[in-house]
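Hey, quick one: can you model this chain's 3D structure?
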Amino acid sequence: MRIVMIGPPGAGKGTQSALIAAHFDLPRIVVGDLLRDHVARGTDLGRAVDSHLSRGELVPDEIMLCIVRQALMAARAVGSGYVFDGVPRTMAQARAAYKIAMELGMSANVAIHLRADEKELIRRLLARAALEHRSDDTEEVIRHRLELYEQVTQPIIAWYSRRGILVSVDAMGPVEEVGRAILAALELKRPSAGRIPARVRRTVDLTRLGVQCGQG
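Sure thing. Here's the predicted structure for all 216 residues.
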């Protein structure tokens, strides 16, 4: 299966994408974690995106699409699907990523949309910031990120719906309940041809993902 996760910050994309990846034995590409790791290590990519992340702004499309291409090529090389968490973030990015995926024969066949109330999202993100000491999750930055989501990401939901691949799930319930709803929906969409025996699967190497992105 080739799955993309879409939803506002704090909706639980990270938790649920990990559950999906484990259940279906798929490589999980979490773009936000990848970018923060590059920032922490001071790589070329990290330096290119640091100021954007600290202000809660979107990372430039050319960097995000570079990461998308690298990840899809790595997954294709081992005959695998994927779970993408963090891309696309804009309509232009969605169309460009779709073009790349079509060229590689790796276009998504399911888009999981997590819905959640704004007040609950802010509460979750502030709690996470306190727990993880994340400097990019101040209340001001959180509100800015949610505003950006409403402005530029919501139209992607309608686009996925028109393509017939959208699965919309209420993310306000307990984590386990949300997870069960997602897995039940995915099992119905799971193509039998995509069930690759475990003995023939190979691990997707994502350790160097993004290394060549963000270099000027």
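One thing worth noting: The longest helix spans residues 139-163.
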